[in-house]
């Protein structure tokens, strides 16, 4: 189940991320799926779905949207993604059940504030939940 959640998250990030400056529709799912966060824009050029047990409950304890500047979030995400991707390919040193699939996140592409905010917080959650340090 854990592996499936990570696979879904990473697949959604890889397939779904595309540059867009259009208005975003952010939807938190109903109570039945309270651990699902969906982010999409009007033209559906990208979509990210985070399915992680406990993520929503953890997220509300973090600094609110607007606390960090987008530029800061982007820089942190680049660091996290690079380290995460390095661990994906280094299966002898890192658990392949934690580091399942590379994330296609590129510096210079404007993914928007919400994507960067949720990706950053997912990395923070991932590190705390799995006792990992991604620099």
Shape: globular
**Averaged pLDDT, please?**
77
Largest sheet: 3 strands, antiparallel
How many helices? The count is: 4
List keywords for this structure.
globular; 43% helix; three-stranded antiparallel sheet
Characterization of the model:
With 135 residues, this protein is an alpha+beta fold. It has one domain. Helix content is 43%, strand content 12%. Strands 1-2-3 form a three-stranded antiparallel sheet. Helix 3 (70-89) packs across helix 4. The radius of gyration is 14 Å and the shape is globular. Residues 7-33 have low confidence and may be disordered.
Topology record:
Elements (H helix, E strand, L loop, with lengths): L1 H15 L7 E5 L7 E6 L5 E5 L3 H5 L10 H20 L23 H18 L5
Task: Please give a quick description of this structure.
This is Lipoprotein. 43% of the residues lie in helices and 12% in strands.
């Amino acid at each position: 189940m854990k592996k499936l959640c990570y696979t879904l998250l990473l697949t959604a990030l890889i397939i779904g991320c595309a540059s867009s400056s259009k208005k975003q529709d952010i939807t938190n799912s109903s109570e039945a799926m309270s651990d699902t966060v969906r982010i999409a824009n009007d033209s559906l050029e990208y979509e990210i779905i985070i399915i992680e047990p406990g993520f929503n409950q953890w997220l509300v304890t973090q600094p609110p949207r607007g606390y960090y500047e987008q530029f800061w979030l982007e820089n942190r995400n680049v660091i996290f993604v690079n380290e995460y991707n390095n661990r994906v390919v280094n299966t002898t040193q890192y658990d392949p059940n934690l580091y399942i699939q590379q994330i296609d996140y590129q510096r210079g592409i404007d993914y928007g504030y919400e994507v960067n905010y949720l990706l950053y917080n997912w990395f923070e959650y991932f590190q705390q939940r799995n006792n990992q340090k991604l620099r």
